[in-house]
Amino acid sequence: MALLMAFLAVLSACSSAEEPAEPTPTPNYAVHVAPILDANCATCHYEAGPSPFQLDNYESVKQMTAIIGPSLTSRTMPQCGVDNSGECNTFRHASWLTNEQIALVTDWIAKGAPEGDAAKRAPLVPVSAALKNPTVTFTLPKYTPSAA
After folding, report:
1. pTM exceeds cut of 0.70
2. Residues in Cβ contact with 39 at an 8 Å cutoff, skipping those fewer than 6 apart
3. Rounded to an integer, what distance in angstroms lies between the CA atom of residue 124 and that of residue 42?
4. Is the peptide bond before 141 cis (omega within 30 degrees of 0)?
């Protein structure tokens, strides 16, 4: 009888019926995407910044999703060519997105780029005034290549 009880206990513990997995929440801009773009893209992509369009607000990002995804997956952005792959070196403060961050952003785009609850977005850290208003301007002499 004890053997039968033990067999039934093992059998019930090895049930083939799997628990349904929790559905993965659809990523949204406010909670999932904005922190990635704010930390890695909005330092150049801000109003009157050095980049041709903003990535520091939902409306601007939503309009640019057609180029954001391919730019991230091809790793053409950031355009400085610095990576943290470890093949050559690891650079401190490089704006290199992880494969997981790229997958999250491209998944968000594929699912329609929902905004989410804007009240849940972390506040954007303002760009340093030193970057917005340079205090030194250099004028370089005209360059003429040698005939060699």
Report:
1. no
2. 95
3. 9
4. no
